[in-house]
């Protein structure tokens, strides 16, 4: 058997084709084609959809609908998506960003999925043909999911509310040691009133820093006040080990970078 | 094995070929069409040696399926010199010693070309960013960065 | 760039017209136009693709190999095992009488490192070769493995390579290469200070942008053309001739531009099996390492361990130096016995020391076989020696550069290898370095010369 590509104009038909064994959806292909090149023979058929709706970016009322086929490059250069641009620009080099899609990033295993980390912190919802679910639910069910993701809905954060940090060894492009995204709402006196923090490489997929989020409530973002939140950053993490860094190393540096992101 | 037609323009001339479904653009260009200027250094997206320009955007031909490029406008380093005359970018790579074994060079030149097409007067940071998906193991990056900056200056002098 | 022609002006004709002048590389026009031909730019109709089935174990006995399913796989043309290789056990340096033959082209009865080639699959497409490779069944009995040189040299360690019979290379000088000069123990006895330190390095991969590979075409009359990116054309030709038991006149090797080598393409690995495949199938064959193979399978620079013991006087003279060097060859020799020997020839470094003792061992472990890389046998040694020099200088409270001036070899000095130093230029280099780095040293050192009176 060789690798074959099937092209469909509608998501519905493609979803039907994806029921067959050995079949996988083709987004930008940066991970699936790579796996095939490297000798992964478990996939024998790729399915793609040409519906232009999947590549659409629709901004309205402080919200954005990102089609699943929207690329990192398209997000990075979109005038109304400045808040998301740093996370989109953190993915790969220029050619990868021209190919890598939002949908693929949601499925990318750690150390990849930097953009999905941002989507998790922003509380995005993930849309398929017949459902829309919170991103946490999507991640929880990701392994068994075969349905094509058609897009993600995101509430755009106000200025100064959203912070993103990717740590890599090679600059400006490199695979993540870790990535962190934080959505922070603060009272006029600077105390944190609500927050969502997401981390990449701290499990096989993006996860929330729930203990840290809780400990930050009511704190000002000073080194002294955030110290207890940093102390619990390691709760519930199971960092990956790969050639970039060991789980031990990732766990050690997490509070350091989290501290830098929160206190500057 | 099922063969599928692919048709696109390569460096301005029409190409049509039958390839096996699932063939990468890199294989189609090199083994079917005979343009070996894109190189396969990793087939993983990590080295950038296979970089080509598809409809004005830099892409990795090793991760692109040929079938998805129907009717596209594809540019490679082999098509850069017009009438045998080197482009300023090529001239600068040559003069600045920005090529040693040469394996990364066609990909580097493609990455640099899309940068200069959009940003005629790039900063050093722009160049570093534009080349960040391309690996060179021989020259060190400094001569390459200098070559791109030199080419940008030469372009703007020609335009003036 | 600045050229200092005043040094050695009296011993050198000033005819350096090319040095210091920019000269274009002859191959650059091809590089910037994408026209330079690399081996993989050749494509032949009907070309087969070779994929290697590799050992998943560091050390194991092969109980059986079943290739029947793989042979039936659509697109597969031929599957090769050790039996198909005319002279399966070889070693590259046999050409210069450095034996014994200790490595298999395809594993026979045993694997000694994770990634070792076991079965070669030839198919119409890469994909078919990959799919069929996954269907080859090899039954292994896993054996205890050893990964560090100290462990390998301990009594009772698992024996890595039966062709050697022990876990080190046996030189004509015995278990190691030895240099003995003066009386090192007497030197230690009169030294003001003694410093013994141990230095270690990990294997280093060359990671050339172009991976290792070759393309072979049958030319009729039992002759073959092999397009390869080897850095060692005639070594490869002669070894292929031995492995294939075929006169070299039947083999036409075509080299050309190599997409980065750095020493990593001097081993004879892909060519013999690809030529054999072309011979047995009558078809052109391409065998190109994937990026993963390049990183995991091709030989790295050896891991090394260097133990240096020095006796030094308060005035800065090193009076005794004892070096024990260990080179981790991995499971097979390749170029490592030579690398370890180069170490023996390189220590004690560019310093004149009256009492020297050197032992260098080439050790076998169940790791990826190591081989050549830029200055192998010397580079890691220099790292160890120069760190040691800094530590010695600190120990006696002396400036590290001045400390090197005191010990630098100069013309006429007797080296530990009993050759008189000639053409030394270390003093002058350090004088220039002192100026360039703005690291002043005492005037008497700036007045020194590599020439010694009477030399
Ligand atoms: C050199 C290199 C560098 C990289 N660097 C980074 C990095 O810095 N950060 C990072 O986050 N990632 C990185 N990646 C990984 C990858 O490029 C990105 O994660 C990218 O967003 C994946 O998207 P894709 O469209 O290419 O996915 P594809 O390869 O097309 O698909 C990946 C997986 O997701 C599934 N899938 C894709 N889209 C959908 C959909 N709409 N519905 C259902 N399933 C879908 C596919 O079936 C497949 O299983 C890198 C990859 C490479 C090769
Ligand atoms: S071959 Fe495509 S990026 Fe290396
Ligand atoms: S010149 Fe050799 S890889 Fe760049």
UniProtKB/TrEMBL annotation, chain A:
PROSITE patterns: FAD_PCMH. Pfam families: CO_deh_flav_C (PF03450), FAD_binding_5 (PF00941). Residues 1-159 form the FAD-binding PCMH-type domain. It comes from the Bacteria. SUPFAM superfamilies: CO dehydrogenase flavoprotein C-terminal domain-like, FAD-binding/transporter-associated domain-like. GO terms for molecular function: FAD binding; oxidoreductase activity. Keywords: FAD, Flavoprotein, Oxidoreductase. InterPro entries: CO_DH_flav_C (IPR005107), CO_DH_flav_C_dom_sf (IPR036683), Diverse_Substr_Oxidored (IPR051312), FAD-bd_PCMH (IPR016166), FAD-bd_PCMH-like_sf (IPR036318), FAD-bd_PCMH_sub2 (IPR016169), Mopterin_DH_FAD-bd (IPR002346). This is Xanthine dehydrogenase family protein subunit M. It comes from Mesorhizobium hawassense.
From TrEMBL, chain B:
InterPro entries: 2Fe-2S-bd, 2Fe-2S-bd_dom_sf, 2Fe-2S_ferredoxin-like_sf, 2Fe-2S_ferredoxin-type, 2Fe2S_fd_BS, Beta-grasp_dom_sf, Diverse_Oxidoreductases. Residues 4-80 form the 2Fe-2S ferredoxin-type domain. Keywords: 2Fe-2S, Iron, Iron-sulfur, Metal-binding, Oxidoreductase. Gene3D superfamilies: 3.10.20.30, [2Fe-2S]-binding domain. One of its GO terms (molecular function) is 2 iron, 2 sulfur cluster binding. CDD domains: fer2. PANTHER family: OXIDOREDUCTASE WITH IRON-SULFUR SUBUNIT (PTHR44379), XANTHINE DEHYDROGENASE IRON-SULFUR-BINDING SUBUNIT XDHC-RELATED (PTHR44379:SF8). This is (2Fe-2S)-binding protein.
TrEMBL record, chain C:
SMART domains: Ald_Xan_dh_C. It holds the Pfam family MoCoBD_1. InterPro entries: Ald_Oxase/Xan_DH_a/b, Ald_Oxase/Xan_DH_a/b_sf, Ald_Oxase/xanthine_DH-like, AldOxase/xan_DH_MoCoBD1, AldOxase/xan_DH_Mopterin-bd_sf. GO terms for molecular function: iron ion binding; oxidoreductase activity. The keyword tRNA-binding does not apply. It comes from the Bacteria. Gene3D superfamilies: Aldehyde oxidase/xanthine dehydrogenase, a/b hammerhead (3.90.1170.50), Aldehyde oxidase/xanthine dehydrogenase, molybdopterin binding domain (3.30.365.10). Keywords: Molybdenum, Oxidoreductase. Residues 33-144 form the Aldehyde oxidase/xanthine dehydrogenase a/b hammerhead domain. This is Xanthine dehydrogenase family protein molybdopterin-binding subunit. It comes from Mesorhizobium hawassense.
